[in-house]
Amino acid sequence: MYPFLKHTRAPHSSLSYCSHLLDHCLSHKSLNLVKIVHAHFLKLGLNTYTYLGNRCLDLYSELGHIKDALKVFDDIFHKNSTSWNICLKGFLNSGQLGEAFHVFDAMPVRDVITWNSMISGYASYGLSSHALGLFIEMQGTGVRPSGFTYSILMSLVSSPCHAKQIHCRMIKSEVDLDNLVLGNSLITMYGKLGLVQYSFGVIMTMNQYDVISWNSLIWACHRAGYHELALEQFYQMRGAELLPDQFTCSVLMSVCSNLRDLDKGKQVFAFCFKMGFVYNSIVSSAAIDLFSKSNRLEDSVRLFKEQNQWDSALCNSMISSYARHDLGEDALQVFVLTLRKNIRPTEYMVSSLLSSVSIFFPVEVGNQIHSLVPKLGFESDAVVANSLVDLYAKFGFIDDALNIFKEMKIKDLVSWNTIMMGLTYNGRVSVTMDLFRELLTSEGMLPDRITLTAVLQACNYGKLVDEGIEIFSSIEMEYGVKPGEEHYACVVEMLSKEGKLKEAIDIIETMPFRPTSDMWRSILFACAIYGDLQVVEGVAKKIIDRESQISLPYLVLAQAYQMRGRWETMVRMRKAVENRGFKESIGHSWIGIKNNVYTFASDQLQHHGGKDLYLLLNLLVLDMESEGYA
């Protein structure tokens, strides 16, 4: 099969010939061929040579056969640093981090390649703190970091302070900052942290730049929310006569998407046609997202159907587009088709799908998606877990939501916010407050606007007025959050329910926002119970001035006049309601049974068997009355 191995005369034993055999193995990427060549070396006693051993070792490692690689490693008489580094890299690539550390620990000499491999290995497994610890240890041994070392560290940075420290260290170490890769990595690092001005500072000091440099800068502006600035950098890029690539176009469409500028998005899409990028998965996904966010879902669907080949990125975009438009059934159909095409779902896809499962679906649909999570290995993913918590809380299965939250190994602030909101809206006020205290004391995370909204709403529902006021008073000073309309609305409703109308009105009149109608409505309802007539009339007038087409203030006034025996004024209010012809909003309830959603309105029952249901209800009422129930 391999005629060049038939002869074993001396010329064939030369290093150059053996090296040629290994080159042949490398080009074919064939494990069988490597084993045949290795056996040839064993037969000729060449397996102990350092150079040939290292070459064999590298080939086995690349093909993922670490056991065979170890046999080669053991046969090498004089192991040099290259031998140890290849062995270390083999363990890291095969996912055996513990074994890799044992090799690292046993190495007689560690050069910069050794340290880079180990730091990169820790980074690839998400062990950022270990990677940074190794970097510090590396400097203590006197090994000088290379540009590659810093490029790894830049991908791990999570705070502006660390980013600036690494940049300063690079300057002090006299690393070649003219290196294009390092320059691009610096732009991306600062962009990831929202330090756009530093990204600009880096690119202005670069002697040369390429498409990746501009892409990184455009992406940095987009990520930080400077969408117009991102478009300006694209024009600068074109002025520099650099040709945009697929990544440029996908980011630009995301920019137009966030700007809700469909016209500019169409121009970018036309440019993609001109460049031949339209059937690129990343570009098409961005275009689907753009059209969906611009309320052109039909265009998203058309583009999705025109794709010759689906992948996870395309399916992610289409599922999230359907979810965005509350078309959960369509999202589920795309997901099923994705599975049939043997496309492995991503964490984002599962999260989007879970968010599309509304209360109109049976909870079993959510259960089925949940059952896929451990099979796909997503149980430790925070985004998926948060979506599951939200799903079960939305369906009222708050205990299941709480159990998922407790089992999460890594909880971010979104996790805490999701469970606290779910607990609050399911009436578990005391548990919400306990979790809030736990978040502050044990987790060391500062709450954000959403956290404080959940807590204030819990205080509102649980009638914890004093505690709610105390938290509200310390929002800015204690937590660094400027109170928003949602926080004021919670406090106004809380005070109104307790009959503290003066305090509620004082807050409305002193807050830095224009009061919403909902705030005045909270006070109006309370006024009907606790307030004097003058206050009721004043609040009702404010609502009428803002929303003249609703009947609520007139009805509350009529009730207030009736309670005080002012019958003539009460009749006048009721006639005002009749004469103005207010359209009353009808309350609805929905229930999903199997594949059907049944709608119940306050004035009718939209169901084919409505009469039968009412007859059954009447019989039940009669039975209850006969048993003595009111």
UniProtKB/TrEMBL annotation:
<dbReference type="Pfam" id="PF13041">
    <property type="entry name" value="PPR_2"/>
</dbReference>
<keyword id="KW-0677">Repeat</keyword>
<protein>
    <recommendedName>
        <fullName>Pentatricopeptide repeat-containing protein</fullName>
    </recommendedName>
</protein>
<feature type="repeat" description="PPR">
    <location>
        <begin position="210"/>
        <end position="244"/>
    </location>
</feature>
<feature type="repeat" description="PPR">
    <location>
        <begin position="381"/>
        <end position="415"/>
    </location>
</feature>
<feature type="repeat" description="PPR">
    <location>
        <begin position="111"/>
        <end position="145"/>
    </location>
</feature>
<feature type="repeat" description="PPR">
    <location>
        <begin position="311"/>
        <end position="345"/>
    </location>
</feature>
<dbReference type="Pfam" id="PF01535">
    <property type="entry name" value="PPR"/>
</dbReference>
<dbReference type="InterPro" id="IPR002885">
    <property type="entry name" value="PPR_rpt"/>
</dbReference>
<dbReference type="InterPro" id="IPR046960">
    <property type="entry name" value="PPR_At4g14850-like_plant"/>
</dbReference>
<dbReference type="InterPro" id="IPR011990">
    <property type="entry name" value="TPR-like_helical_dom_sf"/>
</dbReference>
